[in-house]
């Protein structure tokens, strides 16, 4: 966790999100640090706690499925995140949070700073 902000310090946690090409564009179009609403077939928003896990998903799953994969990084108020238990989806670094789709707007209000694309992967031509 890191501390950010001016005035009273806000403890934040860095989260990562592997995405398909459309999602970073929707975040950018919103004009604010916010994830777009989930589709009906996406009842859970899954940010991950380790960059290497996000890289594996973006590169190994999203590229074959959609031609490109992106890894985003963002900070969230650590006190707010305590409501979501860390879930292990495999090995020691395969950790994620499960945010119900109906709580995503509130989750978005606790993002501190920007959502940044930090890595891109593309299918070989």
Q: Can you put this structure into words, describing what you see?
A:
The structure is a single chain. The chain is α+β, with helices and mostly antiparallel strands and 125 residues long. 28% of the residues lie in helices and 34% in strands. The chain contains 4 helices and 8 strands; from the N terminus they run E-E-H-E-H-E-H-E-E-E-H-E. The chain has helices at 22-30, 51-66, 78-81, 104-109, and strands spanning 2-4, 10-19, 44-45, 68-77, 87-88, 95-96, 99-100, 111-122. A 4-stranded antiparallel β-sheet has the order 1-2-4-8. A two-stranded antiparallel ribbon has the order 3-7. The longest helix has 16 residues, at 51-66. The chain is globular. It starts with a strand and ends with a strand.
Q: What are the SSEs and their pairings?
A:
Layout: E1 2-4, E2 10-19, H1 22-30, E3 44-45, H2 51-66, E4 68-77, H3 78-81, E5 87-88, E6 95-96, E7 99-100, H4 104-109, E8 111-122
Antiparallel strand pairs: 1-2, 2-4, 3-7, 4-8, 5-6
